[in-house]
Amino acid sequence: MKKFLIVPSILSANFCYLGREIKTMIRAGCNLIHFDVMDNHYVPNLTMGPILLKSIKENKIPALFDVHLMASPVDSLIPLFFDLNVKFITIHPESTIHLDKTIRLIKNIGCRVGIALNPATSLHYLDYIINDLDLILIMTVNPGFGGQVFLSYILKKIQHVRYLINKNKKNIILSVDGGINLSNIVSIIQSGADYLVIGSTIFHSKDYLKTIQDLKNIVI
Ligand code: DX5
Ligand code: ZN
Q1: Are 216 and 26 in contact (CB under 8 A)?
Q2: Could you give the C-alpha distances from 14 to 9, 11, 81, 95, 182, in angstroms and in order?
Q3: Residue 198 CA, ligand 2 centroid: distance in Å
Q4: What is the pLDDT of residues 107-137, one digit of tens each?
Q5: Looking at the predicted structure, is the pLDDT value of residue 220 above 80?
Q6: Can you name the residues that pair with 7 across neighbouring β-strands?
């Protein structure tokens, strides 16, 4: 079976004990953490921002972050994530007027660039930007909330993106976000995913470490 990485989404974590929750993920071997920023404009929900990452850094929690920006306008937010242990910043193409410029802003602060494609967003967005990308995030739910049902018809889209990445001979990471659980993880990996963003399946379980191990084992 293909190599893959589980990237826990802390949107579903217990925010009263966020530091402890992240440390548990690191203990489970997951030191890349998905961080959902929602603005109640691009999506109908309001979550967290860079101030939280600053606090995590100051408390020396050795995590790296995969920041998923669901915000519009988005450009003014990007510089706020500078020097906060952020590895990837992923944006939605519909959230900005000048996509190329937004991509440059992410590169300028030394982060890797991701593009998130909603269930109904066309792959044509990739035509002119694929060479600038480090990651493509395929949404398997409509963005806005954790705990939604996985849209299985998106498996075909994942396969198509895998084909495009291979054809392009680029080392772009194919990430999948939304509704991933023990029943669908195998089909997602078989469709070509590298990173699996998983929120409620981990954080709504009783034993996080066991759940992460179960998710890994089921694939072998
Ligand atoms: C949804 C977010 C996801 C969410 C995934 O808009 O982008 O990252 O946290 O959570 P689950 O795994 O519960 O669908
Ligand atoms: Zn996300």
Answers
A1: no
A2: 11, 9, 23, 28, 21
A3: 9
A4: 999 999 999 999 999 999 999 999 999 999 9
A5: no
A6: 197
Is 187 assigned a ligand-binding role in the annotation?
no
Indicate which CATH number applies to the domain containing 91: 3.20.20.70
Distance 59 CA to ligand 2 centre (A): 24
The pairing of beta strand 32-38 with beta strand 64-70: parallel
Whose atoms come closest to the Cα of 205: which ligand? 1
Task: List, for residues 56-114, the tens digit of each pLDDT value.
Answer: 999 999 999 999 999 999 999 999 999 999 999 999 999 999 999 999 999 999 999 99
Total tally of structural domains belonging to the chain: 1
DSSP state, residue 40: S
Q: Is the CB of 12 under 6 A from ligand 1?
A: yes
Question: Which structural domain range is residue 42 located in?
Answer: 5-217
Catalytic annotation present for 177: yes
Q: Is residue 1 predicted with pLDDT exceeding 80?
A: no
Whether 173 lines ligand 1, by a CB cut-off of 6 Å, is no
Instruction: Reply yes or no on whether 36 is catalytic.
Output: yes
Q: Which of 36, 75, 134, 194 is catalytic?
A: 36
pTM of the model: 0.98
> Cα separation of 65 and 48, whole Å?
13
Q: Is 4 annotated as a binding residue?
A: no
